[in-house]
Amino acid sequence: MKNYFSSDYLSKKIDLMLQMQVSNPINAIGMAKELIESCCKTILDEKGITYSKNDDVPQLADKNALLIAFFLDFMVTHDTP
Predict the structure, then answer these.
(1) What is the pTM of this model?
(2) DSSP 41
(3) Are 37 and 60 in contact (CB under 8 A)?
(4) Which of 31, 1, 2, 3 has its CA nearest to residue 15?
(5) Considering just the CA atoms, what is the radius of gyration of the chain in Å?
(6) Contact 59, 43 (CB under 8 A)
(7) Mean pLDDT per 10-residue section of the chain, whose length is 81 residues
(8) Is 15 exposed, middle or buried (0-12, 13-18, 19+ CB in 10 A)?
(9) Among positive and negative, which fits the CA dihedral 42, 44, 50, 56?
């Protein structure tokens, strides 16, 4: 997971999308969607949370938001800095 979310990897993807935004905006949008989807799936896989092959980006993002909310609630409840 650390390699996938490395600054170098993300920087290259973002740079490519920025280059494409003028020359090929449809592909740039598609790449952005795929990057978000991949990030969501990677986080869910790492945490052992299941999702459907049919889940779209909003559904995957919602599951990640619930995970973050749960984590924050746990930290507050257990007084973790």
Answers:
(1) 0.73
(2) H
(3) yes
(4) 31
(5) 15
(6) no
(7) 69 89 93 91 91 95 90 73 58
(8) exposed
(9) negative
